[in-house]
Task: structure prediction
Amino acid sequence: MRNRYVLAAGALLAGLVLIAALLGLGTVAVAIMAPVQDSAGWRRWADVGQSFGVLSTVVSGLAFVALIITLWIQMKELSFQRDELRMQRGVAERSRDELRRSADAGMRMLHVELLKMSLDDPSLAQVWPEFRNGSDPHRQRQMAYANLVFQHSTLSMVMAGYTDDQIRDSLRYLFASDLMRAYWREGAAVRRQTQKPGTEHWRIAQIGDEVCQEFDHPAAGSA
Result:
């Protein structure tokens, strides 16, 4: 598209210059073929001078046209450059979002692996502060497994770009389990301390609180 504009403008300028040159050469040729032997010959040469004056005006007009065309091409170039910058900015933003998602997924996978290690070794489970308060080992393992299930579900929802309604439906399925709701209630303090408002995981946690309230107070959830 850009090359087509430049070629069209160049062809137009070249055509105008060629026409002006042909007019000037034609006028000179006519004057030369007419011998200067009388007053009529001198008048022809005077006409040639006037013709060159007209030609000078034409050339000036062509220069003005060339200036207009040059400005037009520059405006087109700037428009193309702005479009390219917008495209590059969009690509960069998408790449940044993908990198952030990949990094977040990597951190979540590490969290999952740590939880799996605590399930395999009860002595490691005692390191986690979340569900140790007065809980027996059996209860701790249940809560650790519930955490593992929720982290897996959260990661799946974030990677798939779930809407609020889709997140709500998924959490309703999870929270149909009494143990999952117990895990959610017992982990409320930890979520407040560790989650950053405005993030995807914070959004899921907010919806999780709403869904848990629906189960705890069915009348309020159906209202």
